Amino acid sequence: MEDYERILLVKSEIFVYRIPPLNNTKGYRAADWKLDTPDWTGRMRLISVAEKLELRLEDKNSGALYAKAPIDKYPSVCLEPVTDSSRYFVAQLRNDTGKTAFVGIGFADRGDSFDMNVALQDFFKQAEKEAELQQKQDQGAPSLDLSFKQGQTITINLGKKTTTRIRDEKPETGGSVPFLPPPPSTTGAVPILPPPPGSIVRPRP
Hints:
Keywords: Endocytosis, Protein transport, Transport. With 205 residues, the chain is α+β, with helices and mostly antiparallel strands. The chain is built from one helix and seven strands. It is elongated and about 145 Å long. About 2% of the residues have low confidence.
């Protein structure tokens, strides 16, 4: 899933200059550049990507990316104003392989540079507020202690579980014959059964 991009500022014309190395601690000066002959002219877009900020230099007509400058803080080595003009800045360009180069950028209209300053300051102020709010929430949230205190017990109710065992009704093995109740005996004689109906009964001798 691609990160959501939010456009903070668009300027239709921006100038890019090759600049000499910084030889002093006072900062960059636009007067040292060839302001009348910029090395590239295009448009500028200030983009917020996944809580990060990028300054993108693009072709005016096609919108193709020429270069980009990730900005972690302002002012910083990523982007800083020159010391002798409000319309020019020094940006640290960075490509996808991590190589960097410092260039000068500037606007013909002072109002454009003012708009960029405001957009940059607003972005980092908002980011700072969100970071402070998150820090307060993290500090204020009570920690959850799941450890047992001394002498503390816990009861777990698993419910009743009944098991019914069905005994196999199998005869005893081992050669024993089950005992049957003995027939009723009088004196060892065979019991007399009544004759079937229609038969002739002969008296006993």
